[in-house]
Amino acid sequence: MFGFQGFDGFQQRPTRFNTQYRCYSVSMLPGNERSDVEKGGKIIMPPSALDQLTRLNIVYPMLFKLTNKRANRETHSGVLEFVADEGKVYLPYWMMRNLLIEEGGILQVENASLPVATFSKFQPQSEDFLDITNPKAVLENALRNFACLTKGDVVAITYNEKVYELHVMEVKPGQAVSIIECDMNVEFAAPVGYQEPVYKKKEETEQEMAVDESDYVPDGFLAFAGQGHRLDGKKKGTDPQPMALGAGAMRRGIPNYEYKKGKMTFMRNVRRPQNNHQTEEDDEFQPFTGEGQALRRKGGRK
Predict the structure, then answer these.
(1) pLDDT (tens digit, 9 = 90+) per residue, 12-22?
(2) Are 113 and 56 in contact (CB under 8 A)?
């Protein structure tokens, strides 16, 4: 079926693998749950496919082109194991959504040879992807479970028990590339629905932060907002401005020799009687002009 006669008389091995299978999601796989298959981009094929592939002169690693002819959709994948039931293949759920194929649909599988990737660009489908501290490291670790990438696919990766979907916007050097043992540059586009924050100038920000006191009308109690009243009946704000005292206005105070502990004395300025004979020189304080008193009288004892 796969062989043909060459011009040199020797039988040459065919190099194409092209078979149709019934397609199912990994959750339909008999046995224990295989959550590891959902975290990658590889499929599970039947043992007969391995027998046919070993007889072919195919290029390793094994890469396959998956086509849903009914919806005219295609993608690429690697193979994880050959343990599926005959006539069936099991795919990750995100890959079935890209192919628009239902459980039990007919899927065409053929081997493919893809160039090694050098560049890829992804667009997160949710703004939650921005919460990841180092997205490139997370993506690099997740892509270890993938064998190839196809432009236009929406791949799913798992991080901290949460699934993130990424749209493959661009790959180089072809529409589909192999990412096995490659040095690939990765870029990210803005997530779907993300809007860049609008930064305002410093002057506009200060104007918005400034509060006009005339427009501000507080509700309820406002502390220290009343008007004070003086005991002397004068209105607030009518106090005379303080003036510096001249040198001649300062006089020496007189101590209160009748002061007693616990007694309050209110001193009032009393006008002295005017003395016509008193001059301005007499009013001025003159130190050391008083009369001294001696404890012992002059002349000796009596």
Answers:
(1) 556 689 999 99
(2) no
